[in-house]
Amino acid sequence: MNKVTLIATTTMGLEAICAREVKALGYEDVTVENGRVVFTSTVDAIPRANLWLRTADRIKILVGSFKAFTFDELFEKTKALPWADLLPPHAEFPVIGRSVKSTLFSVSDCQAIVKKAVVESLKKQYKRGWFDEDGPLYRIEVALLKDQAQLTIDSSGVGLHQRGYRALHNQAPLKETLAAAMVQLTTWNVDRPFADPFCGSGTLAIEAALIGQNIAPGFNRDFVSEQWHWIGQEKWDRARQEVEDLAKYDQSLDIVGSDIDHRSIELAKNNAAEAGFADLISFKQMQIRDFSHRAQYGVLVANPPYGERIGEQAEVEEMYRDMGQVMKSFETWSVYVLTSHEGFEALYGKQASKKRKLYNGNIKTDYYQFFGPRPPRA
Q1: Where would I find the THUMP domain in this sequence (predicted)?
Q2: Residues contacting residue 241 through CB under 8 Å, at least 6 positions apart
Q3: Which of 54, 24, 51 is nearest to 39 (CA)?
Q4: What CA–CA distances, in Å, run from 334 to 186, 302, 351?
Q5: Which tens digits make up the pLDDT trace of 148-169?
Q6: In order of start, what are the domains of the chain with their CATH numbers?
Q7: DSSP β-bridge partners for residue 366
Q8: Residues 6 or more apart whose Cβ sits within 8 Å of residue 226
Q9: What is the pTM assigned to this prediction?
Q10: Distance CA 316, CA 377 (A)
């Protein structure tokens, strides 16, 4: 197999950022769709995309796409796809599915038919009547949208947001992929201070450190497609060597995280140590009204509480007022805040330079961006 079409799935709102990452890897045939970025390249893009894409949830391989109004149509068109090019005779290939606004609305039936069709296709190619499925995992997905069926295979395994550094987290953790997007949407660079005054388990600070030192987010984890024969160990070794060669481990960074909860601080310290940043990121127990920093032209990025639980709103709104008062003293700083509270700007005391809609899990939020002045050229 030479060329493959890959689908990088994303959280809604992150598609453009993910597409920019894909293009930065050197891939030009890129299409942005709702919740995903589609691109075509050679097979070595599979290891590279899994290792490098910070805002993608999964990397899927497109096997085929076609209209299917009947179960017979779904069976025959699935069977006609080149499954033996992808699945070895001992492959484990469970089928998952979903159906939206389609004639074939029974997901369990669609899964069963696709499974049967793949088996029949493999029987024909491998000249055998039974498959033990005791080898590498190839998870197939059949997705139907308005009667258009799409067959893919997941190359990631565990979701890409699971970097491997966050063994423990607090009750409402910020997803690593969203945290990486929040950092990339700022004006921060390695010459400027970075601060998160509501650090929780430290995700924003750690993602900033990964970006600052150009460390691939997948450097510390495994992927299901590492076991696939048609990719091969050589391509994975080459991709991991590229990760090592491009990392800037000696890059100094000024990154601080703080939180009012001492348990969160301990959690953040442990996670930072797991990521290899124990001596690079500073964490301190502190409430927002006591925030301080000596440097100019810093970037503050925050995912504060939203006040959605009963009894929390008054406390959270007071916190937003405190943040606004504190940041008046930091005239050269840029501030970025993610919250679902629609009255945030009024409480903060300033209108945002720009707002961007993002989803934190199932919560619709706004990313408020307050641009400070550009730092003078060195």
Answers
A1: 45-155
A2: none
A3: 24
A4: 8, 11, 13
A5: 999 999 999 999 999 999 876 6
A6: 3-154 (3.30.2130.30), 176-215+231-245+253-370 (3.40.50.150)
A7: 339, 357
A8: 47, 233, 236
A9: 0.95
A10: 38
